[in-house]
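Issue 218. Parser rejects a valid record. Input:
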Amino acid sequence: MTIVYAAIAVAVVLVVGGLLLFNWSKQRELEAAVATPTPAPAASGKPTPAPIQLADGTVIGKPLIKLGKISADTAAGGQGQDVDGIQCAGMEFAALHIHPHLAIFYKGQQVEVPPAIGGAIHDGAQCLYWLHTHDGTGLIHIEAPQLTPPGGAAYTLGILFDIWGQPLTRDNIAGLRGPVTAYVNGEKFDGDLVSLPLRAHEQIVLEVGTPVVPPPNYAFPPND
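Output the parser choked on:
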């Protein structure tokens, strides 16, 4: 009987240990997803400029990127079908609710990131992808029912652009063509733009063409 009790005890320890490890892993995923990065000094070496205050419902930049009739999504983007495993739903979710920021510049001038990226009509009703925009501030809303996308490690800039239906390459950003210089939180980013993870209060700046201006610093709206 002693051997049986010992086996049961070992099994209980393994189950409890597995649950603790699973919970720890999920907590780390959540912390990584919602971690708020600190913007670095400007790439020029000068002190980070005073932040530009973002306000919900406003517009930042010149409207150079065309909009669709219903949303900003192009015919190649989200029209209600699943995109990269992301659904277009009739509600917003709260398991993960974070706000990165995207700024696009073209030949030194800031361009509006359009409202209603991620909006669509599906089966005759309006729906919204887990990644979307509400206004022209450049704020990206990630309001998802799970911490990570289906089959992926993180929500990425590439997923947003796939939903939008716009190109995201080192020489073409949403139809704006030219060499692309990218910054993440004020530091130059030379990695793959498509796989760039989106984090809470992350500041992404994509500059197309020249001149390349120092990446701005943005202040997020209160409670965002």
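Fixed in the parser; the record now loads. The CA atoms of residues 65 and 174 lie 7 Å apart.
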